[in-house]
Specification:
This protein has 243 residues and is α/β, with parallel strands linked by helices. It is 40% helix and 17% strand. It has a seven-stranded mixed beta sheet with strand order 1-6-5-4-7-9-3, sandwiched between helices. The chain has a two-stranded antiparallel ribbon with strand order 2-8. A hairpin with an 8-residue loop joins β4 and β5.
Length: 243
């Protein structure tokens, strides 16, 4: 039976932000190359001895909307062909694979951090928090988290960061796809509430269209006020008031 969770937590955890870099490990493996026997051997060993969840995020760069993260435990008995970095897939292919992942994975979880949390914590710490929430939301407890990138969130299980892991580790690829498709869907919903900004087209990223609409219509409640282009508009609008 597929076990999953789609979490949309937006309140601060009571134990976050314990200070500085303690919330994110800097230990990382280099980008694995095809045919890297040591890396592939390590993955085979993990598959034999661990319950592995892959973890990835989506939405660090946009000027608006939450940052999302997903965690996925794949089922070896139900392989999903075609998993890879979500950025290298078409939207249609991502959507198809997302359905297969939800249906065939042993467990999956999607979480987010709100714009308010991003502004309060900074985007790095908010991303780490979203990843932790995704891991903790899994219905099947993992013993090892493989994280895309060069930092690991603080969590109760062992974790390893793998640079460009989203294109080399199937579980991370699956998490990348779930995080990306979930965030894109959320921005389409935001577009219905704030149609002037065309969130359905640029998904909050700082495209020319988004910047044009931002200048024309001002800052919305879902924009990240700590991001430079947004803050610059707020400073112009309220030059004598601290934001």
């Amino acid at each position: 039976m597929v076990k999953n969770r789609d979490s949309t937590l937006s309140l601060f955890d009571q134990d976050i932000d314990k200070g500085g870099s303690s919330a994110a490990s800097l230990v990382a493996y280099p980008s694995p190359k095809s045919g890297d026997e040591s890396f592939e051997s390590r993955l085979r060993e993990y598959a034999r001895t661990e319950i592995i969840c892959g973890v990835d995020e989506a939405g660090r760069g946009p000027l608006a909307g939450p940052v999302f993260a997903a965690a996925v435990i794949l089922d070896p008995a139900r392989p999903i062909p075609g998993l890879r970095d979500s950025k290298k897939l078409t939207e249609a292919r991502r959507d198809t694979l997302a359905i297969q992942i939800r249906n065939n994975a042993l467990a999956w979880s999607i979480a987010q951090c709100s714009e308010e949390e991003i502004d309060a914590l900074n985007i790095l710490q908010a991303t780490m928090l979203a990843m932790r929430r995704a891991i903790e939301g899994l219905a099947v407890p993992p013993t090892l988290a493989l994280i895309d990138g060069n930092r690991c969130p603080t969590c109760s299980i062992r974790s390893e960061a793998i640079i460009k892991g989203d294109d080399k580790v199937p579980a991370i690829s699956a998490a990348s796809i779930l995080a990306k498709t979930a965030r894109d869907a959320a921005l389409v919903v935001l577009h219905r509430e704030y149609p002037h900004y065309a969130f359905d087209q640029h998904k909050g990223y700082p495209t020319a269209l988004h910047l044009e609409r931002l200048r024309a219509h001002g800052v919305s409640p879902v924009h990240r006020k700590s991001y430079a282009p947004v803050r610059a508009l707020l400073d112009v609008a309220r030059p004598n008031e601290k934001v």
